[in-house]
UniProtKB/TrEMBL annotation:
InterPro entries tied to this protein: Asp/Orn_carbamoyltranf_P-bd, Asp/Orn_carbamoylTrfase, Asp/Orn_carbamoylTrfase_sf, Asp_carbamoyltransf, Asp_carbamoyltransf_Asp/Orn-bd
The protein's role, per its UniProt record: Catalyzes the condensation of carbamoyl phosphate and aspartate to form carbamoyl aspartate and inorganic phosphate, the committed step in the de novo pyrimidine nucleotide biosynthesis pathway.
Native species: Phocaeicola vulgatus (Bacteroides vulgatus)
Catalytic activity: carbamoyl phosphate + L-aspartate = N-carbamoyl-L-aspartate + phosphate + H(+)
Family: Belongs to the aspartate/ornithine carbamoyltransferase superfamily. ATCase family.
One GO BP annotation of this record: 'de novo' pyrimidine nucleobase biosynthetic process
Residue ranges occupied by any Aspartate/ornithine carbamoyltransferase Asp/Orn-binding domain in the UniProt entry: 149-255
Name of the protein: Aspartate carbamoyltransferase
A cellular component annotation (GO) from this entry: cytosol
A molecular-function term among this protein's GO annotations: aspartate carbamoyltransferase activity
Name of one Pfam family that matches: OTCace_N
Group of enzyme by EC: transferase
Amino acid sequence: MENRSLVTIAEHSKEKILYLLEMAKEFEKKPNRKILDGKVVATLFFEPSTRTRLSFETAANRLGARVIGFTDPKVTSSSKGETLKDTIMMVSNYADIIVMRHFLEGAARYASEVAPVPIVNAGDGANQHPSQTMLDLYSIYKTQGTLENLNIYLVGDLKYGRTVHSLLMAMRHFNPTFHFIAPEELKMPEEYKIYCKEHHIKYKEYTDFNEETIADADILYMTRVQRERFTDLMEYERVKDVYILRNKMLEHTRPICVSCTLCPASTK
């Protein structure tokens, strides 16, 4: 299998993204295709996951592949001191492709540089989540009929939210206007605002989240405040419920796509 890793969405052109979305449309019509018959997919989850892991394993099974892997690094040799490189090299002897989630930023990039098989980044710390972004783009395209010239409101944890970082990079091809809504502690990191300026992506920043703020939204992208990213639990308690979307807030907005990501929900 040719080594074609998916580490960051920033590496893909507009044409490649649109091609993948067209392929997704075809696979949605007919998901069960045995094009990976005889292949082995390894899912290595060094960080907890339910939805992402099951999504990948379901897709692999529908395409005819066999799945190996682990969901808890404590039951692997990494708990004995085995390095990430050694784990990746060892698993590469068994698998044709590796899907990996890791708690360290940059782990997927490193794995792709040492592995002889493709690496799919299923989330690396607070950095990137390109596979989730492809799903987000497909959802936006289906509901809006276009990816061009959209007002996209990103709400909540913009500091640690790897899905919003990837989405921002993917949308650089489509002339969006981003609206960053976050408390001071969780605002969009400076490196991504610099990225916006370098790629001529328009953005505005807010701390208020109310009916007036989101009135012009095409896309409302809600994120969970991630307790697992905080070293100071008091800080987490201060911000965990700061933005709650209520039905009344949508009464006077245009028809929009609301995406609530980074589940599971941690509050009722």
